[in-house]
Specification:
Length: about 260
């Protein structure tokens, strides 16, 4: 199977700090790749570099589109990158307010992405918005409510609906359960796991929570000081960590 995304020796520096230091990995179709590490390990920088939110100093990122075209992401024009993010990719922000337009309705938030790819029929847009609200377990009667009227967990689910309406192949997630209480986290994780399976999504998931990783990720990268220090199947890495840093991360989650 050919990889959907190939990251090769990606480097990102902030003055003398190597936030990402020659990071390489492949992501395959319908696979969830987890990236873990302590704060400052480089995991969020890596995600933002892949998403084109920040420039890189070295390395390469290639992506194979649904039509089979291989794109070299650092060389894409801003217009082409935006188009890619509108249809084949999505980015789930840690704070859903950063991924939503808070001054327009829930339905309009979802419909906006459809309009961005050329859908103009109001009835079709409304129908799709209703469908995706239902898919993320938001009462369809709230389609005309503003996001500020929703709880944090509902805002995160609305952000998911906004992204999924264009049926992306790849979703980048930055701490999607951060800031939510445990019960809300559990519901959101169950929803994400269900959507990943039924929609055959490929996902890169950044989190500090190994419980989230164990539940969602097929494969795992462990980052420290901008480098990948361990990688492999999620259960294999978590149940039998080889690197001392991974051992420390795993043991710290087991201590009451």
């Amino acid at each position: 199977m050919e990889p959907l995304l190939n990251v090769e020796k990606l480097s990102k520096f902030y003055r003398n700090i190597k936030a990402c230091d020659r990071v390489s990995f492949n992501l395959y179709p319908a696979q969830v790749l987890g990236i873990v590490g302590e704060s400052g390990s480089g995991k969020s920088t890596l995600l933002n570099a892949i998403g084109g939110n920040i420039p890189i100093e070295g390395g390469n990122i290639t992506y194979t589109t649904s039509s089979g075209e291989v794109l070299t992401l650092p060389k894409l024009s801003e217009t082409r990158r935006r188009l890619l993010m509108r249809n084949e990719w999505g980015f789930v922000q840690q704070n859903p307010r950063d991924g939503l337009r808070m001054n327009v309705t829930a339905g309009a938030n979802i419909g906006e992405r459809l309009m961005n790819i050329g859908v103009k029929n109001y009835g079709k847009i409304r129908e799709e918005a209703t469908y995706w609200l239902n898919q993320v377990e938001i009462d369809i009667n709230r389609i005309d409510d503003l996001p500020k009227m929703f709880s944090g967990g509902m805002q995160q689910r609305l952000q998911l609906a906004r992204i999924l309406v264009t049926k992306p192949r790849l979703i980048l997630m930055d701490e999607p359960t951060g800031g939510l209480d445990v019960s809300v986290q559990a519901r959101l994780l169950d929803l994400i796991r269900s959507l990943v399976r039924t929609l055959s999504l490929s996902v890169i998931l950044v989190t500090h929570d190994l419980g989230v990783i164990r539940l969602l990720a097929h494969r795992l990268l462990v980052m420290k000081n901008g480098q990948i220090v361990e990688s492999g199947l999620t259960d294999q890495v978590l149940d039998d960590p080889q690197h001392s840093y991974t051992q420390k991360l795993v043991s710290s989650t087991l201590i009451p």
